Amino acid sequence: MLGPNASGKSTFFRTIAGLIRAQSGQIHLDGANLAGLRRNERARKVAYMPQAFASNAVLTVFEAVLLALKQSTGWRVRVVNLDRVTQTLAGLGLLHLADRDLGQLCGGQAQMVAVAQVLVRDPRVVLLDEPTSALDLLHKLTILHAVRAEVQTSGRIALAALHDLNLAAEFCDRLILIREGRMVADGPPAEVLARPKIGQVYGVATALEHTRRGPVYVDAHLKEHA
After folding, report:
1. Contact (CB, 8 A) for 88 and 120
2. Mean pLDDT of the chain
3. Distances in Å between the alpha carbon of 222 and those of 92, 195, 200, 206?
4. DSSP codes joined into one string, 39-77
5. Model confidence over 194-219: pLDDT tens digits?
6. Does residue 66 contact residue 117 with C-beta atoms inside 8 Å?
7. What is the pLDDT of residue 226?
8. What would the pLDDT profile of 17-76 be if each residue is shown by its tens digit?
9. What is the pLDDT of residue 214?
Protein backbone atom coordinates (compact mmCIF):
# COMPACT_ATOMS: atom_id res chain seq x y z
CA MET A 1 0.00 0.00 0.00
CA LEU A 2 1.48 3.29 -1.15
CA GLY A 3 0.24 6.84 -0.72
CA PRO A 4 1.04 10.15 0.95
CA ASN A 5 0.42 10.77 4.63
CA ALA A 6 -3.29 10.84 5.52
CA SER A 7 -4.26 9.15 2.25
CA GLY A 8 -6.21 6.40 4.04
CA LYS A 9 -3.74 3.52 4.39
CA SER A 10 -4.17 3.11 8.15
CA THR A 11 -7.96 3.43 7.87
CA PHE A 12 -7.95 0.69 5.25
CA PHE A 13 -5.91 -1.62 7.49
CA ARG A 14 -8.02 -0.90 10.57
CA THR A 15 -11.15 -1.70 8.59
CA ILE A 16 -9.77 -5.08 7.47
CA ALA A 17 -8.78 -5.81 11.08
CA GLY A 18 -12.32 -5.04 12.23
CA LEU A 19 -11.34 -2.11 14.44
CA ILE A 20 -13.60 0.27 12.53
CA ARG A 21 -16.73 -0.41 10.50
CA ALA A 22 -16.65 -0.12 6.73
CA GLN A 23 -18.90 2.66 5.44
CA SER A 24 -19.76 0.59 2.37
CA GLY A 25 -18.77 -2.64 0.66
CA GLN A 26 -17.67 -5.96 2.10
CA ILE A 27 -14.37 -7.64 2.95
CA HIS A 28 -14.08 -11.29 1.96
CA LEU A 29 -11.29 -13.72 2.83
CA ASP A 30 -11.23 -17.22 1.36
CA GLY A 31 -14.88 -16.82 0.38
CA ALA A 32 -16.06 -15.70 3.83
CA ASN A 33 -17.35 -12.25 4.72
CA LEU A 34 -15.15 -11.07 7.60
CA ALA A 35 -18.03 -9.03 9.01
CA GLY A 36 -19.83 -12.29 9.78
CA LEU A 37 -17.04 -13.64 12.00
CA ARG A 38 -16.83 -13.26 15.76
CA ARG A 39 -14.06 -10.98 16.97
CA ASN A 40 -11.80 -13.82 18.18
CA GLU A 41 -12.30 -15.71 14.90
CA ARG A 42 -11.39 -12.64 12.91
CA ALA A 43 -8.34 -12.04 15.12
CA ARG A 44 -7.07 -15.56 14.38
CA LYS A 45 -7.29 -14.90 10.65
CA VAL A 46 -6.09 -11.29 10.55
CA ALA A 47 -3.12 -9.96 12.55
CA TYR A 48 -2.59 -6.19 12.61
CA MET A 49 0.51 -4.22 13.59
CA PRO A 50 -0.50 -0.57 13.99
CA GLN A 51 1.63 2.39 13.06
CA ALA A 52 1.97 3.44 16.70
CA PHE A 53 2.37 0.97 19.52
CA ALA A 54 3.44 1.02 23.14
CA SER A 55 3.65 -1.40 26.02
CA ASN A 56 4.08 -0.74 29.72
CA ALA A 57 4.03 -4.43 30.57
CA VAL A 58 6.98 -5.81 32.55
CA LEU A 59 7.80 -8.59 30.11
CA THR A 60 10.86 -9.88 28.35
CA VAL A 61 10.92 -9.95 24.56
CA PHE A 62 10.40 -13.73 24.59
CA GLU A 63 7.44 -13.43 26.98
CA ALA A 64 5.84 -10.66 24.91
CA VAL A 65 6.01 -12.70 21.71
CA LEU A 66 4.78 -15.83 23.50
CA LEU A 67 1.85 -13.85 24.93
CA ALA A 68 0.92 -12.71 21.42
CA LEU A 69 1.00 -16.33 20.24
CA LYS A 70 -1.16 -17.61 23.12
CA GLN A 71 -3.89 -15.09 22.32
CA SER A 72 -4.71 -17.21 19.27
CA THR A 73 -3.85 -20.72 20.52
CA GLY A 74 -5.15 -20.88 24.10
CA TRP A 75 -3.24 -20.23 27.30
CA ARG A 76 -1.60 -23.61 27.92
CA VAL A 77 2.06 -23.35 26.92
CA ARG A 78 3.47 -26.28 24.97
CA VAL A 79 6.97 -27.04 23.73
CA VAL A 80 5.83 -26.38 20.16
CA ASN A 81 4.80 -22.86 21.22
CA LEU A 82 8.22 -22.16 22.68
CA ASP A 83 9.84 -23.46 19.49
CA ARG A 84 7.61 -21.21 17.38
CA VAL A 85 8.62 -18.13 19.38
CA THR A 86 12.30 -19.06 19.12
CA GLN A 87 12.04 -19.56 15.35
CA THR A 88 10.25 -16.24 14.87
CA LEU A 89 12.80 -14.30 16.90
CA ALA A 90 15.66 -16.02 15.07
CA GLY A 91 14.14 -15.18 11.70
CA LEU A 92 14.08 -11.50 12.62
CA GLY A 93 17.54 -11.49 14.16
CA LEU A 94 16.09 -10.86 17.63
CA LEU A 95 17.14 -13.99 19.49
CA HIS A 96 19.91 -12.12 21.32
CA LEU A 97 17.22 -9.86 22.81
CA ALA A 98 14.98 -12.70 24.04
CA ASP A 99 15.72 -12.10 27.74
CA ARG A 100 15.76 -8.30 27.47
CA ASP A 101 12.90 -6.37 29.13
CA LEU A 102 10.65 -4.50 26.70
CA GLY A 103 11.31 -1.26 28.55
CA GLN A 104 15.02 -1.55 27.80
CA LEU A 105 14.56 -1.58 24.03
CA CYS A 106 15.17 1.32 21.69
CA GLY A 107 12.39 2.37 19.33
CA GLY A 108 13.66 0.32 16.41
CA GLN A 109 14.06 -2.82 18.51
CA ALA A 110 10.56 -2.39 19.93
CA GLN A 111 9.19 -2.06 16.41
CA MET A 112 10.86 -5.30 15.37
CA VAL A 113 9.38 -7.07 18.41
CA ALA A 114 5.95 -5.79 17.34
CA VAL A 115 6.49 -7.41 13.94
CA ALA A 116 7.48 -10.65 15.68
CA GLN A 117 4.25 -10.55 17.71
CA VAL A 118 2.28 -10.44 14.46
CA LEU A 119 4.21 -13.11 12.57
CA VAL A 120 4.33 -15.59 15.45
CA ARG A 121 0.54 -15.95 15.43
CA ASP A 122 0.59 -17.57 11.98
CA PRO A 123 -2.47 -15.65 10.71
CA ARG A 124 -3.94 -15.93 7.22
CA VAL A 125 -3.48 -12.18 6.66
CA VAL A 126 -0.73 -9.96 8.10
CA LEU A 127 -1.33 -6.20 8.16
CA LEU A 128 1.81 -4.13 8.74
CA ASP A 129 1.30 -0.38 8.99
CA GLU A 130 4.67 1.25 8.29
CA PRO A 131 6.69 -1.65 9.78
CA THR A 132 10.07 -0.11 8.84
CA SER A 133 9.50 3.52 9.87
CA ALA A 134 11.85 3.53 12.89
CA LEU A 135 14.47 1.12 11.55
CA ASP A 136 17.92 1.47 10.07
CA LEU A 137 18.65 -0.03 6.65
CA LEU A 138 19.87 -3.39 7.97
CA HIS A 139 16.76 -3.96 10.06
CA LYS A 140 14.44 -2.73 7.31
CA LEU A 141 15.87 -5.37 4.99
CA THR A 142 15.77 -8.02 7.75
CA ILE A 143 12.07 -7.47 8.43
CA LEU A 144 11.01 -7.35 4.78
CA HIS A 145 13.07 -10.45 3.96
CA ALA A 146 11.45 -12.27 6.90
CA VAL A 147 7.92 -11.24 5.91
CA ARG A 148 8.49 -12.25 2.30
CA ALA A 149 9.89 -15.62 3.40
CA GLU A 150 6.81 -16.19 5.56
CA VAL A 151 4.54 -15.41 2.61
CA GLN A 152 6.42 -17.71 0.26
CA THR A 153 6.55 -20.67 2.65
CA SER A 154 3.12 -20.41 4.26
CA GLY A 155 0.94 -18.98 1.49
CA ARG A 156 -0.38 -16.26 3.77
CA ILE A 157 -1.16 -12.74 2.57
CA ALA A 158 0.91 -9.78 3.76
CA LEU A 159 -0.19 -6.18 3.29
CA ALA A 160 2.30 -3.48 4.24
CA ALA A 161 1.98 0.29 4.15
CA LEU A 162 5.36 1.60 3.02
CA HIS A 163 6.75 5.05 2.27
CA ASP A 164 9.97 3.82 0.68
CA LEU A 165 9.03 3.20 -2.96
CA ASN A 166 12.24 1.35 -3.69
CA LEU A 167 11.78 -1.13 -0.84
CA ALA A 168 8.21 -1.64 -2.06
CA ALA A 169 9.51 -2.31 -5.59
CA GLU A 170 12.02 -4.86 -4.34
CA PHE A 171 9.90 -6.85 -1.90
CA CYS A 172 6.27 -6.56 -3.04
CA ASP A 173 4.50 -8.54 -5.76
CA ARG A 174 1.75 -5.98 -6.14
CA LEU A 175 1.40 -2.29 -5.35
CA ILE A 176 -1.77 -0.36 -4.64
CA LEU A 177 -1.44 3.42 -4.81
CA ILE A 178 -4.10 5.47 -3.05
CA ARG A 179 -4.84 9.16 -2.60
CA GLU A 180 -7.57 10.70 -0.43
CA GLY A 181 -9.09 7.30 0.23
CA ARG A 182 -9.35 6.26 -3.43
CA MET A 183 -7.29 3.80 -5.44
CA VAL A 184 -5.22 5.49 -8.15
CA ALA A 185 -3.21 2.53 -9.46
CA ASP A 186 -2.96 -1.22 -8.86
CA GLY A 187 -0.56 -3.74 -10.35
CA PRO A 188 3.02 -5.06 -10.47
CA PRO A 189 5.69 -2.67 -9.13
CA ALA A 190 7.30 -1.90 -12.49
CA GLU A 191 3.90 -1.05 -13.94
CA VAL A 192 2.60 1.11 -11.08
CA LEU A 193 5.85 2.99 -10.48
CA ALA A 194 6.30 3.74 -14.17
CA ARG A 195 3.05 5.68 -14.39
CA PRO A 196 3.14 9.48 -14.29
CA LYS A 197 0.51 9.26 -11.52
CA ILE A 198 3.14 8.20 -8.98
CA GLY A 199 4.75 11.64 -9.13
CA GLN A 200 1.40 13.40 -9.31
CA VAL A 201 0.14 11.66 -6.16
CA TYR A 202 3.24 12.56 -4.14
CA GLY A 203 3.69 16.01 -5.70
CA VAL A 204 7.24 15.30 -6.91
CA ALA A 205 9.02 14.58 -10.17
CA THR A 206 10.04 10.95 -10.67
CA ALA A 207 12.09 8.87 -13.08
CA LEU A 208 12.16 5.08 -13.24
CA GLU A 209 15.37 3.12 -13.57
CA HIS A 210 16.31 -0.57 -13.37
CA THR A 211 19.02 -2.01 -11.13
CA ARG A 212 21.39 -4.81 -12.09
CA ARG A 213 19.40 -7.23 -9.95
CA GLY A 214 16.18 -6.40 -11.75
CA PRO A 215 13.95 -4.44 -9.32
CA VAL A 216 13.05 -0.93 -10.38
CA TYR A 217 14.44 2.17 -8.71
CA VAL A 218 12.49 5.39 -8.36
CA ASP A 219 14.54 8.59 -8.57
CA ALA A 220 12.42 11.35 -7.01
CA HIS A 221 13.11 15.06 -6.60
CA LEU A 222 11.20 18.28 -6.00
CA LYS A 223 9.47 19.60 -9.08
CA GLU A 224 11.19 22.97 -9.00
CA HIS A 225 14.51 21.15 -9.38
CA ALA A 226 13.32 19.01 -12.30
Report:
1. yes
2. 86
3. 35, 17, 11, 9
4. HHHHHHHEEEE-SS-------BHHHHHHHHHHHHH-S--
5. 877 888 888 888 777 777 766 677 77
6. no
7. 46
8. 988 888 888 899 888 898 888 887 888 889 999 876 666 568 999 999 999 888 766 778
9. 62
**Nearest to residue 175, comparing CAs of 133, 20, 163?**
163
d(CA 16, CA 22): 9
- Report the DSSP beta bridge partners of residue 186: 176
Three-state SS across 116-133?
HHHHCCCCCEEEEECCCC
Q: H or E segment at 179?
A: strand 175-179
At residue 27, φ and ψ (nearest 5 deg) are: -115, 115
Q: Are 137 and 92 in contact (CB under 8 A)?
A: no
Q: Is the dihedral of CA 61, 62, 66, 67 positive or negative?
A: negative
At position 82, the amino acid (one-letter code) is L
* Domains of the chain, earliest start first: 9-163 (3.40.50.300)
d(CA 64, CA 117): 7
Q: What's the rounded Cα separation, in Å, for the pair 162 and 159?
A: 10
| d(C-alpha 53, C-alpha 39), whole Å | 20
First to last CA, the chain: 26
